[in-house]
Amino acid sequence: MDGSERRAYRVVGRVQGVGFRWWTRRTATALGLGGWARNEADGSVVVHASGSSEALDRLEEALGRGPVGGRVDRLEAISPEPGIPVDTFEIKA
Known about the structure:
Helices cover 26% and strands 38% of the residues.
């Protein structure tokens, strides 16, 4: 895995209770990305990812669509936190 770039997003819409974090983990893992996804108290999901620029672009496109059963109203780029995992993609509580 490249791991040279880090990005983070806040996904707003119907993204909790629809398997969004698990779908994000499957998508990110398939793209060879590390990172994590976490539900937020405001109903959004925050995603932090690390890997190649191309793979991160593909994840961003996927996050903008979301899984079947979900609805993405807005995808916001936010500042990535330090220490994003590079070898695994985790679901945070």
